[in-house]
Amino acid sequence: MSEHPGRPERPHEYRIEDLAHRSGATVRTIRAYQDRGLLPKPERRGRANVYRDAHLARLHQVAGLLDRGYTLASIKELLDAWDTGRGLGGVLGLVAEVDGPWTDEETGRITRAELDARFGGVPDDAAVEDAVQLGVLVRVPGSPEEFLVPSPQELAVAAELHAAGVPLPAITGHLRELRTRVEHIAGRFLDFTTEYVFRQYLDHAPTDEEAAEAAALVRRLRPLAQQTVDAELARAMRAMATRYLRDHLDGEAAMGTAGGDGDAAGPAGGSTGSAAGPAGGTASVAATAAGSPVSARGDVRLPEETVRAVAALVGPGNVAAFIAAAAEREVRARTMDALVTRPEDE
To answer: Can you give the pLDDT at residue 337?
Structure first.
């Protein structure tokens, strides 16, 4: 309160150190906010910078929005809206919808000891570092033996795959590939909804009413992307798994028939019904000629080291089946890569 009633109180003036003390921010943070346009430039008076109550109020605004979970980029947009007189009511609601969680899953925590136990009990620093880089784990400041888990479901999937025999590097490699494809799907969904739904709100600064309408649309459309992907993934998995199993069983049946006939010979006159054991270097692979229902067979020479490695993994009797399945998987993967390649990427 003013010491002289009836006389307006003079605005306070602060040096940057005083402003930092009153706001709770550091001097470095204040300067960073100025560089990002979050804080107005101070008044230059001689060789000193002078800050006022408006700067203190702005620092409190930024701190409050950070506590509510907004990013600095989002805060910049909000403050720009405020500075241009558009108000923050509707814009805050819209940004809250977009920046809010897109899943009902709650973040978990896990200690390093618990993590090691879930993945076989053997510490693997390289795998942990991969998980941190991918965002599957987030280090807790000041607690080096504890991690945040943004998606406990994702970590649980990785643990199940590892328990089933999948190496950790293969799991992280698969996640990197999957993430690239999912981000492409997310981008296409955003392009689609922007073109047909949100375009009307983006060609001008929205009013509070328009921002509220857009926020309601985001709330309605948010689950649609995941529902669509879930449905299409289930359809694709069912179709491809059935086809894959049928092809695999057909290949096994064909090899079993040939293996039972000791006189069956391939193009070079050698037996095609059996796979060489660890000491051999040949695996017989059944293939169907393109455009023909007739089964064509041929011997494929493989390095002895490869045959030994496969035999050690699946057993000598399953070498040919494993190699055929691996080749089929690679062909399918490359076919899918070609199908999802956008014209502009070609």
So the answer is: 56
